[in-house]
């Protein structure tokens, strides 16, 4: 920074000269310091100068333009004040630049000797110096604002990190709790009440949390509906309760309100935790937050070491995947579907098994991991390819082939070429379309619903059957059944009454209702997870014709399934 002032005025008072030098030196060094340090350092030299010049009080009022000046709405800075009785003796108006006008007010004790001309010129110099000094501080504040706030006026992640580091420096971080939370379905809230009211809801929700955590914590926004929070352990229960669900008023006159829920990742910072980088804490709460969003059930997830291990296992799977698919470690197992009346084999579901170094990895261990990116799509197409090759061979061998269903992850819904992709594989293997069925799970949002409808309609036009998989888990909706042209409804195991369930149990009633609804809609209906003879009887009693489950067969390796194909009855 260039020197703004130099002490080359021909002043002949050595005491004044040394004070002024100190003052100017401090000024020139203020670059790079934060506001508090500067005011302490410059303040000391300034006080001495003021005392020397019999000034009791010195105030600067900054206006951003003439309009503010006229309305007398400026930012006031008291630079020096002895607190003794004083009266204003001098007032100067300085125009710093086109946007800044400063009024400097200088006070003296009522019985102080008036200033000499030379003293007035000295005071003048101090005034000018101060104006530059305060202007810089103000500019620093503006920069601070943009550094630590986002465009909507929320503290940002940089602020949050700095606050975390401060707590760590003061030895207060250990024992505190860090939280990342996301407002659930906020785009739906915006749709429901409009964006403007949505913004008010966000702000009110944030403010209420801020009240709960009070001065002992800090909050920030990461962007969108993602927030960060650091609070003391004492208020954690209150914070969690609030995040789980609360009503937020958005119109104070009508008292209109919405219900807001959040998913959150929580990391209680242990006593022995050493903060090397705020990013370490972020990693933990983001991971727990992600687990919370995917959990479906528990929406507030606490970070623990288990999660770290899980994450390590997951990334191992993701790393292993490309090699595994190249080395054909994935194999198709077939689980028969059986007609409960004639005990006849009518179809099968292709289920994936991963053979890795003498170990069979079950789908639950890798499907959700592969669903975190688009690897799952590669796997599904691979499975479809293998199934088509098998069907083609069976047909060539003259076997009595049944329809085989293949699972497609919802991740495919964004692929606009999905239909072409499926047909390319099926047709290249010369498999008649009636032998293929595609199983898709239910969907949660409107956007996916539209995509799902497009895909299912396309498949139907191509003569390929589609099934709603896992019906009854999650967000079953009648719309899903009515508006999309499915062929098959697969009732999930969780809706199938166990042998212990009475006829009037909720599950029995629901099961009966779902089967009759499927029939009324003209859908083929199959129940998954049928394990006992009593359950087979229950299916018959409720007119559900098809079953899949351990009672008939587990998912079978190729050779065993081919035996079933040859025999065809149970
Ligand atoms: P799903 O599509 O609902 O498959 C049925 C699951 O129920 C299979 O689990 C099957 O082994 C199991 N099951 C069948 N009968 C019974 C029974 O009587 N009792 C019990 N307790 N379970 C039974 P699996 O093979 O472990 O697969 C789990 C899930 O993984 C599947 O659920 C499916 O969503 C997914 N999956 C499997 N293979 C693939 C694939 O190639 N692609 C995709 N996207 N997902 C797949
Ligand atoms: Mg399935
Ligand atoms: Mg299923």
Describe the secondary structure blueprint for this structure:
Elements: H1 14-29, H2 35-52, E1 57-63, H3 66-70, E2 75-81, E3 87-97, E4 100-108, H4 117-148, H5 157-169, E5 176-183, H6 186-193, H7 195-213, E6 218-223, E7 226-232, H8 236-244, E8 246-251, E9 256-260, E10 262-268, H9 278-295, E11 300-302, H10 305-326, E12 330-339, E13 344-356, E14 359-361, H11 363-370, H12 375-396, E15 403-407, H13 418-428, E16 436-441, H14 446-461, E17 465-471, H15 478-483, E18 488-491, H16 506-520, E19 524-528, H17 533-541, E20 546-548, H18 558-567
Parallel strand pairs: 10-11, 13-15, 15-16, 16-17, 17-18, 18-19, 19-20
Antiparallel strand pairs: 1-2, 1-4, 3-4, 5-7, 5-10, 6-7, 8-9, 12-13, 12-20, 13-14
Helix pairs in contact: 1-2, 6-7, 12-13
Residues 335, 351-352, 362-364, 367, 376, 380, 383, 407-409, 439, 469-470, 493, 528-531, 548-550, 555 line the site of ligand C2E.
Which percent band covers the strand fraction?
Answer: 15-25%
Low-confidence stretches: 1-11
Helix content: 40-55%
CA distance, first residue to last residue: 90 Å
Bound molecules: ligand C2E, magnesium ion
Q: Going across the biggest sheet, name each strand in turn.
A: 12-13-15-16-17-18-19-20
Structural class: alpha/beta
Oligomer: single chain
Q: How is the biggest beta sheet arranged?
A: 8 strands, mixed, barrel
Number of helices, counting only DSSP H or I runs of 4 residues or more = 18
Large-scale geometry: elongated
- In total, the number of strands is 20
Rounded average pLDDT: 89
Architecture overview:
With 570 residues, this protein is of the alpha/beta class. The protein has helices at 14-29, 35-52, 66-70, 117-148, 157-169, 186-193, 195-213, 236-244, 278-295, 305-326, 363-370, 375-396, 418-428, 446-461, 478-483, 506-520, 533-541, 558-567, and strands at residues 57-63, 75-81, 87-97, 100-108, 176-183, 218-223, 226-232, 246-251, 256-260, 262-268, 300-302, 330-339, 344-356, 359-361, 403-407, 436-441, 465-471, 488-491, 524-528, 546-548. The strands form four sheets. The chain has an eight-stranded mixed barrel, surrounded by four helices. Strands 6-7-5-10-11 form a five-stranded mixed sheet, with helices on both faces. β10, α9 and β11 form a beta-alpha-beta unit. It starts with 13 loop residues before the first helix and ends with a helix. Ligand C2E is lined by residues 335, 351-352, 362-364, 367, 376, 380, 383, 407-409, 439, 469-470, 493, 528-531, 548-550, 555.
